[in-house]
Amino acid sequence: MAVPMRPGITLKLFFAILAASAVAAAAMAFATRWSFQSGFFGYLSHVEAQSLDAFASRLADEYRRNGGWTFLQGDYGRLRALAASPQPVQRLALLDPQRRALVGNPELGDEASMRAVVVDDRVVGWIARTPSRRISTAADLAFQQEQLRAAWIIAGFALAVAALAALVLAQLFLQPLKRVAAATHRLAAGDYATRVEVKSGDELGRLAQDFNGLAEKLERNETLRRRFMADVSHELRTPLTVLSGELEALEDGVRPLSRDSLASLRAEVDHLGKLVADLNQLALADVGALTYRKETVELAPLIEQSLDSYRPRLAERGLELEASLEPGARAFVDADRLQQMFRNLLENSARYTDPGGTVRVALRRAADRLAIDFDDSAPGVPADARPRLFERFYRVEESRNRAKGGSGLGLSICRSIADAHGGEISAAPSPLGGLRVSIVLPAAS
């Protein structure tokens, strides 16, 4: 079954503006017509009032000349001739001082205009005329028709201009929306590099800016997703390749089954298990399923526990451990998660700091924030690499590579834990010559 064609938003907006303009033009035409008719009849009434005053003056002169109204008795034609009026009989009447009809229609109604005929300061009669209710002369009628025709021509011209303006405005207003719609289709098809040109600062311009922001985030997320999948597959493939090679060597008899060979296999299995556990930690953090049991604790003893557990590891690497912990610093945290973050940072220093170096941990309070610094000695991290240290699987190849045994996920887990506590984590050059990792947490009230 064929799908009926529906008008687009451009056509709808065009008809909406055109309809509003047509209503306005029609209202203007009718208002003009009503104003003309009411004003024109008012003008005619004013002219008739002036002519009635002049007529009353002429009748007074005739009355004085003839000594009374006998010259008009029953002669409406002469009355009309004196009035110089082409109007029909029903419109004029001459009344005596008591307003009794002498000549003309005695029943002109309450709306009739009356003027006194005064002779020597004495009212000798009244002249009455009904007001105009229609245009009677050919000139008046032609003038009225010309004015009405002009009003309709103006209304038609206004409607044509409104139609042109509606078309232009519809195109003007909807062109940015069309660009956003086209870009949305490309974005939905997977073209995350799509951007919309921002040409204004109004709501349509802000819509384009929001679209560009969304496209940038989607492009960044897609890049991170692809890189993450590639890194995960690479990280999993390496220990599996090592395990496969070791097992094949044992099966072929190239390598004897001994305690050393089993220890090598065990090391690769442990590395694989740690990688999977780290990936699981990050996956739980991403979906908000990583549980936190927070309570107000003092940080100095918590850090001391992590340092005590790592002293043998650091001593084995020939590293000196220093600590400067301000007492009384309390925070609302999950103690286990925080110790996990501390151990990750200590393991990072133990793994990548040159033997004979120093690892220093400091805790200090600044206003309502608590700062924890982990410093180690050389080697340092290049400036362009420091902002990426907390990305998943990122390594500084020169000094902090896979050969050291890291999966590249430890600092990412530290960032997730810091974020979950409303804190911040950052990397900077250390005064000791290596790397400083700073953690800032809100202090407990």
| Alpha carbon gap, first and last residue | 69 Å
Query: What is the number of helical segments per DSSP (H or I, 4+ residues)?
Result: 8
Low-confidence sequence ranges? 398-405
Order of helices and strands: HHEEEEHHHEHEEHEEHEE
Give the count of structural domains: 3
- Beta strand count: 11
Largest sheet: 5 strands, mixed
Per CATH, the architecture of the largest domain is: 2-Layer Sandwich
The helix fraction, in percent, is 40-55%
Rounded to an integer in angstroms, the radius of gyration calculated over CA atoms is 51 Å
CATH class categorisation of the largest domain: Alpha Beta
In short:
By secondary structure, the chain is α+β, with helices and mostly antiparallel strands. It has helices spanning about 10-65, 75-85, 140-190, 205-250, 260-285, 300-315, 335-350, 410-420; strands spanning about 90-95, 100-105, 115-120, 120-130, 295-300, 320-325, 330-335, 360-365, 370-375, 425-430, 435-440.
Question: Secondary structure elements and their pairing?
Answer:
Blueprint: H1 9-66, H2 76-83, E1 92-95, E2 101-104, E3 113-119, E4 122-129, H3 138-188, H4 203-252, H5 259-286, E5 295-298, H6 299-316, E6 320-325, E7 330-333, H7 335-352, E8 358-366, E9 369-377, H8 410-420, E10 424-429, E11 433-442
